[in-house]
Design a protein that fits this description.
The protein has 134 residues and is an all-alpha fold. The chain has 2 domains: 70 residues, no CATH class; 55 residues. Helix 2 packs across helix 3 and helix 6 runs antiparallel to helix 7. The longest helix is centred in the C-terminal third of the chain and has 26 residues. It is rod-shaped.
Length: 134
């Protein structure tokens, strides 16, 4: 531990071992209750739900291990996955803009309209898959 984390002082009435264990158990309960097929919410949301003091997080390696394991077990757990998903979303956005422009043109052939609608349906399904992961 660094000196920065060693100077943490518990709030009044805090029974160090008992309260730290109870806080850790609450954190574990919140993580276990989170859907495992979706990305975790932001850390501040998790800590608030568990009523887990952020100061304690900085000095309790057990909590860090729990959070790390929970993060790795879910989708979008690596920077590479997030970057690839973001790039995919940007490309899909451009494609939707092109298809929309094509559909709003005058004198569009029926075959072009059908292909554009079909592709928009595929894009909608892909977006739904990404949304479910978030």
């Amino acid at each position: 531990m660094t000196e920065e984390h060693d100077d943490w002082s518990p709030p009044p009435g805090w029974d160090s071992d008992e309260d730290e264990d109870a806080a850790l158990a609450r954190l574990e309960d919140v993580l276990l209750a989170a859907p495992d097929d979706r990305a975790l919410p932001d850390l501040d949301v998790i800590l608030a739900r568990a009523k887990y003091p952020v100061e304690l997080l900085r000095r309790d390696e057990r909590a860090l291990k729990l959070l790390n394991e929970a993060l790795l077990a879910r989708p979008l757990s690596s920077h590479e996955e997030v970057a690839a998903t973001r790039t995919h979303l940007e490309l899909m956005t451009l494609e939707v803009e092109v298809l929309t422009a094509r559909l709003t043109e005058l004198d569009v052939e029926r075959a072009v309209i059908d292909r554009s609608r079909e592709r928009l349906g595929v894009l909608r399904d892909e977006l739904e898959d990404i949304r479910r992961k978030l």
